[in-house]
Amino acid sequence: MKMSRQFPLNALRVFESAARHMSFTRAGEELGLTQTAVSYQIRLLEDATGEPLFLRRPRQVSLTEAGERLAPRIAEAFSIMSEALANLKDMSEGTLIIHSTATFASRWLARHLGTFQLENPGIAVRLETSQEMIDFAKTEADLAIRTGKGNWPGLRAHFLMKSHFTPMLSPELAATIGGVKTPRDILKLRIIDAGDPWWRIWFTAAGMPDVDLRGRPGSKFGAQAFEAAAAIAGQGVAMLKPEFYADDVALGRLIQPFELLSDDGTDYWLVYPEARRNSRKIRAFRDFLLKTMPTAGS
């Protein structure tokens, strides 16, 4: 027999995806196949093994006992193959590609990447930023800093810091109304990106759930770092993460009028593909972040 007849690798890849998602439809979306093609590949594997691997019910599939035994072994095998290829790539490429939000990149990463490279002179760093959540299967990025709940299938996630927020503004702008003493005073000033849902969350926490910001000038800067720059310039009140702007507060460029912090249930995470968890350059950067950030891993 030919090896390909003994080991239907395409069918094994389809089985691994379907078992992970517990869905033929989602497996097809991940692999770019129709549901019919997924069903065909699973049937090929079942014919090859002589065992049914899925119980098929309307709009639902579940693993049989044989499927339960096979799934973790197949997942491990593909992980080993992916890791082997990744390690080969690491040997030929010494560049670590980091994807990050613009705000985290400018307010934290930019201040610490030099230290990382001094500690790891053999690793060059390329930093890419956007607000979009990247697909590691379609990008060159090795790892990413993203906000969310930390539960992304196929990715290993390490907690970095809370993503809370509070209004901040320049002291000069606050002085134009005699100071910002109560949350209601904010309504006397221009609000940067009044359509941001963070405003509603914060005002509700401040005991003002009925505040209506509709009709205020719309403004979207695309990243918190740009909103902070506008606030420093006195153009309005911005909803910011205060830890990122401690230097601006110390220099008198921004003030945080209230101690109240709110959050939307998301946090900052370091993420990378599970299959690349043992990559040397990823491991080095992960360890650097976890030791450098006081809140990381907590």
From TrEMBL:
PROSITE patterns in the record: HTH_LYSR (PS50931)
Keyword Transcription in annotation: yes
Signal sequence extent: none
Superkingdom assignment: Bacteria
Keyword presence, Transcription: yes
UniProt domain HTH lysR-type: residue ranges: 7-64
Annotated Pfam families: HTH_1, LysR_substrate
InterPro entries: LysR-type_TF_proteobact-type, LysR_HTH_N, LysR_subst-bd, WH-like_DNA-bd_sf, WH_DNA-bd_sf
UniProt keywords, alphabetically: DNA-binding, Transcription, Transcription regulation
Family: Belongs to the LysR transcriptional regulatory family.
Protein name, UniProt field: LysR substrate-binding domain-containing protein
Organism name: Rhizobium puerariae
Classification of source organism: Bacteria, Pseudomonadati, Pseudomonadota, Alphaproteobacteria, Hyphomicrobiales
